From TrEMBL:
Pfam families: HATPase_c, HisKA. InterPro entries: HATPase_C_sf (IPR036890), HATPase_dom (IPR003594), His_kinase_dom (IPR005467), HisK_dim/P_dom (IPR003661), HisK_dim/P_sf (IPR036097), TCS_sensor_his_kinase (IPR050428). GO terms for molecular function: phosphorelay sensor kinase activity. Keywords: Kinase, Membrane, Phosphoprotein, Transferase, Transmembrane, Transmembrane helix. This is histidine kinase. It comes from Arsenicibacter rosenii. Its EC number is 2.7.13.3. GO terms for cellular component: plasma membrane. The chain crosses the membrane at residues 12-34, 127-149. Residues 216-444 form the Histidine kinase domain. The keyword Cell wall biogenesis/degradation does not apply.
Amino acid sequence: MKLLTKTNRVYLSFSTGIYLLTALAFYAIIKLVIYDEVESRLLVEKRDFEAYIQAHNSWQGGYFVENKIAVVPVKHALPTEDFKDTLILNRYDHELVPFRELTYYTRINGQAHRVSIRKSLIQSYRLIEVITVSMIAFLSLLFLCSFWFQSRLSGQLWQPFYNTLAKVRKFDLSSSTPLHLPAEEITEFNELNDVLQKMSEKIHQDYQSLKEFTENASHEIQTPLALINARVEQLIQSDTLTESQSYWLDEIYRASRRMSKLNQGLLLLAKIENRQFADVDLVDLYVLITEKLCDMDEVLQHKQLRVFTKGTATFPRMLPVVLAEVLLSNLVSNAIKHNVPGGLIRIESTTGQLCISNTGPAPTIPPDRLFERFKKGRDATPYVSPTPHDNEGMETIGEENAPKQYAPMNSVGLGLAIVKQIGDSYGLTITYTFADGEHRICLR
């Protein structure tokens, strides 16, 4: 909900309550004033009636034209005086007419009588109705005008904020155009613009520094690693190496390859997070994943894996082609790597969803942590590596530092993390479930 909408709703609720209370209070005051006037006239009629009784010591009726007076003899006169509303039937149109009645007791010619002086409230009620309708009309008009004015005023006052928000939303870190926010008349908006201006400049500087670092790291680190791998491969092919030397060269080669994969994976994650892949195209992920499986046909046959595809709909998505390749390659490699011999891989595509399932043992870590960096579904099985002591007569080097066990280094634990980062950056929800011996990863 927008701030202006929320403000208008609060103002509307508060104003409605205030206007209702004001209307009720105004109605009560008007009614009180009119009733006070009617009762004052009834008291005047009472004094006139008392003066008439003292002068004539009798009551013949019909003397007072404005009000109705009813005199009824009673046994005892009570020292009370009471005002109340009553209804009297009109003898002409046979309708009940509202009256205000004053009742008191007096003596006429020595006999106690109850005297009721009544005054019609028709004109008073009409006056109250006219005043009430006029009041409601004017208050409603005032309320609508105030609400309209407040909405227009708030809209104009908050317009600089929305302008700033629009410019910040369009600001692109990868662009060389800096964020420019003009000065405003309102002090608070000026302070906000200054803070955002300085923040954008700092973020842009940090982004450029990080971009330069990733580009430099990608080039400067990969070059010596490639050189190390090339030299080690040359040494491994030498015929003069002992078994111990071959072992240590193999360890160096594995560590170098792992470092290269780590470097590439971490740099790729940094580039994805920084949105350094600008070319976005419409890619059908279902077609692309089936092509990936066809490319790995030899690997699938070697592991005796069966592939089932079930596509009822295509799964197009806007994202860079290179990242689409990385995303699906990681998913396919993950399904093959963590499968069992003779297992199966299932691809399902429906409207708005693409799922890849594979058989395999249950994960040993919580499923919600599989997409974290350097987390693996199952711990690699350790085994004791051959040491130089196991080879009699062979030359040994570095015997005291030889590792007792190690895990295979064919996985660095970044595959699913890269998949998750690509999904988060380009509007894909990645979910994982394990049931009935099958791992299932879905893109939505």
